[in-house]
Amino acid sequence: MRETNTVSPKDRFLTVYGRKPVLEALDDPELRVDKIILADNARAPEIVQAARRAGVPVQRASAHRVKVLAGNGKQDQGVLADVVAPRMRPLATALAKAPLPPRVLLLDGITTPANVGMILRTATAAGIDGVVVPRRGVASLDPLVVKASAGVAFRAPVLRCATAAEAAGMLSDAGYRLYGLGATGGEPLFEAELPSRAAFVLGGETGGVSDDVAELLTGWLTIPMPGDVESLNVSAAAAVLCFDLVRRGTARPAR
């Protein structure tokens, strides 16, 4: 199954919930908030006033609806905001016309928000052209991810699709070579000759690269570790990879 042309709101906005994160988004001049949604039973005059100052519409919804939209029933505090992520787009859109992003990361089963956030921060700093964050099987792009990225998630080059397996198929069809980053058994990263168009798969914290994605890999890459350590945390491994691409001159300058 391939990505359709329908653009989901999850491919346009990052949703933040809770009074403090929403107020911070409204007060940040570099962010554009599309709308605020308040629960019918929520009293939040400071948020209403901040939204009015920023010219952001406020909508009312049932408390249950707010919880559903936030995806968090304990910490939403009856308020959420949809923040425009200007570099977020569907993977299908990124692959539909030239120039294609030459280097992309594909997150496969990474469920810890802190890891996703730090990968987004690192990839953006390194000038990576795309980070594929599937809507299923990976931590949701929520305030925990935003916090871990130190706010960079709002302007990270996020590419969206349904699953990692779908993304792997789309990238393969578009002419990308796919490489899995593994702890052992792969070609040493610093010595590998990489093609001009490549996608690098970062597997989950416990299960690694999923079987469906592994079937489409061109090969495996390993980070040399002469010290007595079995493996790196996935976000640390992503940082090594991203800045090796900078060293090679194959990642674009950050925008």
Q: What labels describe this entry?
A:
single chain; 255 residues; alpha/beta; eight-stranded parallel beta sheet; four-stranded mixed beta sheet; 31% helix; tRNA_m1G_MTases_N; Alpha/beta_knot_MTases; transferase
Helix and strand sequence: EHEHEHEEHEHEHEHEEEHEH
What's the helix count? Answer: 9
Indicate the low-confidence ranges by residue numbers.
none
Main beta-sheet strand count, sense and barrel state: 8 strands, parallel
Task: Please state the average pLDDT score.
Answer: 90
Which strand order do you get reading across the main beta sheet? 5-8-7-6-11-9-12-10
Q: How many β-strand stretches?
A: 12
Q: Helix proportion of residues, in percent? A: 25-40%
The helix-and-strand class reads alpha/beta
Beta-strand share of residues: 15-25%
GO molecular function: methyltransferase activity
Protein name: RNA methyltransferase
Pfam family, one: SpoU_methylase
Organism: Amycolatopsis dongchuanensis
Describe the structure.
This is RNA methyltransferase. Pfam families: SpoU_methylase, SpoU_sub_bind. Keywords: Methyltransferase, Transferase. Helices cover 31% and strands 21% of the residues. It is of the alpha/beta class and 255 residues long. It has an eight-stranded parallel β-sheet, with helices on both faces. A four-stranded mixed β-sheet has the order 1-4-2-3, with helices on both faces. Helix 6 links the parallel strand 7 and strand 8. The protein is elongated. The mean pLDDT is 90.
